[in-house]
Amino acid sequence: MEKIVVRRPVPPISPPMIPFPKLESLGFGMMHEFEEWEGNATTTETTSSFMIMPCLKRLEFNECPRLVHALPNNLATFSSLRLSRNNIAKTGRERQWAKISHIPNITINHKIVRKDGTWIHEHNAS
């Protein structure tokens, strides 16, 4: 798998379609061809009656070496993010920092950098 694509159904469905409505934790591991997650998997689009994984709180990417552009746009409700042995953790983190810096628990390459909202290691968040 190279890409996960999230698109709203056409035409809009009423009542709202909610794939994985109770999913709270999602992890990807050892997906060596996975390159990007396209679309916004956690947003409620009020004009389209469409949302995906509205309860998602924990996301993990482990050993996905080609992965650089994988974080969904709306991570506001997330409580935990784990990145290890992939390109987000190496080079993509700075580009994605605005999306993740508010998450209370962040682990990067098996090092806790933020726990319960407190920064653990020296980190440049800009």
Secondary structure layout plus pairing:
Elements: E1 3-5, E2 25-29, E3 36-38, E4 58-64, E5 80-86, H1 87-100, E6 105-108, E7 111-115, E8 118-119
Parallel strand pairs: 1-3, 2-4, 4-5, 5-6
Antiparallel strand pairs: 6-7, 7-8
Structural descriptors:
126 residues, mainly beta, 8 strands, two-stranded parallel sheet, single chain, 1 helix
Task: Please tell me about this protein's structure.
It comes from Parasponia andersonii. This is LRR domain containing protein. The structure is a single chain. This protein has 126 residues and is mainly beta. The protein has one domain (3-119). Helix content is 11%, strand content 29%. The protein has one helix and eight strands. The chain has one helix at residues 87-100, and strands at residues 3-5, 25-29, 36-38, 58-64, 80-86, 105-108, 111-115, 118-119. The strands form two sheets. A six-stranded mixed beta sheet has the order 2-4-5-6-7-8. The chain has a two-stranded parallel ribbon with strand order 1-3. A hairpin with a 2-residue loop joins β6 (105-108) and β7. The radius of gyration is 15 Å and the shape is globular. Mean pLDDT is 74; it is low at 41-49.
